[in-house]
Design goal:
The chain is an alpha/beta fold. 30% of the residues lie in helices and 17% in strands. It has 26 helices and 25 strands. The strands form six sheets. The chain has a six-stranded mixed beta sheet. Strands 20-24-21-23-22-25 form a six-stranded mixed β-barrel. A five-stranded parallel beta sheet has the order 10-9-8-11-12, sandwiched between helices. Helix 9 (227-240) runs antiparallel to helix 12 (268-275), helix 9 packs across helix 13 (279-291) and helix 9 runs parallel beside helix 14 (309-323).
Amino acid sequence: MNELAPERTGYTACPHDCPSTCALEVELLDGHTIGRVRGARDNSYTAGVICAKVARYAERVHHPDRLLKPLRRVGAKGEGRWQELSWDDALDLAAERFLAAEQRLGSETVWPYYYAGTMGLVQRDSINKLCHAKDYSRQFDSICTNAAWTGFFLGTGTVAGPDPREMAKSDCVVIWGTNAVSTQVNVMTHAIRARRERGAKIVVVDIYDNPTAKQADVKLILKPGTDGALACAVMHVLFRDGLADRDYLQSHADDAAGLEKHLKSRGPDWAAPITGLSVAEIEAFAHLVGGTKRTFFRLGYGFTRQRNGVINMHAASCIATVTGAWKYEGGGAFHSNHAIFGLDKSEITGTAFSNPGIRHLDQSQIGRVLTGDAAALRGGPEVTALFVQNTNPVNVAPEQRKVMEGFARQDLFTVVHEQFMTETAAMADIVLPATMFLEHDDIYRGGGNQFIVLGPKLIEPPEGPRPNLFVVNELARRLGVPDPSEFEAEADTLINNMLQRSGHGDLATLKENRWIDCQPDFETAHFVHGFAWPDGKFRFRLDWQGANAPNRPPDSMGPQGPHDRLPPFPDHIDLIEAADDRHPFRLATSPARTFLNSTFSETESSRKREGRPELMIGHDDALALGIADGDLVTIGNDRGSVRLHARLVGGLRAGVLISEGLWPNDAFVDGEGINVLTGADSIAPFGGAAFHDNRVWLRR
């Protein structure tokens, strides 16, 4: 793209919604231009490896379609006619309309809505300070992590675990429910190193033969939503065949005897028809992990995005406790290091202003909220003003038709702060241009590793875009917050204060060192002296009424989903949207390799590699329906229907369909995206979105 020689190398972190949070080296060609982006070679987790989409980030930063000027809608919503405004005029108008909405229906009629378009702690989370200071409706973050974190936490009492770099020291790496090749490439870096240097086996547990499964020594292709059944059958074999570490269970688990009794009827013969695996496959997997003490279970998010996802995660994490794998370097179970960083974000998020009486609205149910669903509104007023940062709900949220209907309301005033004219921005009244991560200061923490990484401003943005923090602070001043001085600090001040309050030194030191390794010592990370519950015991038996979680909904929302049906021990429970006569197929909307949610779908190289929206269909299912490769097909359910092209593949269970990637809605034949088909009903017990749990019909 650029022929200039680099002036210097800049150091930062990838800002996107990925557990790897890669430390980056960026070629800086001049004060406004970047060249190649590489993984930091001296960061022991990134280890010089990044995904192809971020390596080509110059294509995104210097994209000709970037938003550069504030815009005001002058035509009908979604029509695409805009008038340029100055920043002052745009912010004045936004504040005027927010204040008018507040005066008419109260402060809760305004909803600041955001998520993970950037994972920077300043630029992502500062919107919460405005929310708290103005008593606007608060957001319950349910859409991504909730089911996974809850399931892992229920066993260990925390969301942390062995050093993920220990995968390289393992004798068996089980990659469960995550397509790491496509979504967190650094997992593969360390797993493949273990295979190369130690002869380790790589096992992949997933619902289709994706790029990660193709690199496995053992691949177990399940029916969607049946991971709990596999985990139970594995533990049945471990107890039955003397592969359970009974001394470890005695000292570190709560009710191993109760679990063993429960699993008596949960053997491979029971699990095989549920999962689609053979009895032999289940037996072999159980003996592999039972006989390989240094087995590292790398547990992802994907398999928890089912209506029984919390049970699936908890059941899978239990296996490492039955085998005692936690005792060994290179062994144990890991999902995220969320709990280890101890960062005090209170100044950034404005928790001092928080009013506990303000309602929370479920971000996954934005369609229901905006269309006036009384239950989704939680007893408060309708939402008539919306401020959106870092997310594209018209494309990524469940129940897309309801989301579109809500955004199309004439009485809804919407401000969207964005980098491109996304589907959500196209439905706004005011669109504000946003900077990209290389154009502002921020700080990041890795979920899939143990690093806090600084993300300093490396280049000047084009004339026009402004950072999230700037917009939040400027709106606060215009909206008459009680203490405007609380909205004056720049990003570097907020970062420095947070580091000092959290015991992580200061910004000057972090600038020099580039990152902080927060990994606890072996004994802490492997729970040698006990798990994070008061009694130190890993919990097999679950008390759902008294359960806690990292992101438990507020008491005003209460338990979510059919929580009364949750079992006391690991199990397979049929809460999934099971196929029926009208909907004989089950659909998962899995990530694509060169998109990240809806990000990168605007770049030419990513779109060229992905081709077009397609539906992966097994050969036998296609033959039965007379569908040929490339045919235009329709899939649907009670929420709607979508047309896209068929791609015939192997490695799918009968009755399972896969659609990879969040393509822009207009890439589909009828202008509606795949999330037309996904539901927004909550995962039990504490919420979450079941993106990979949809029953559908299929027609040629």
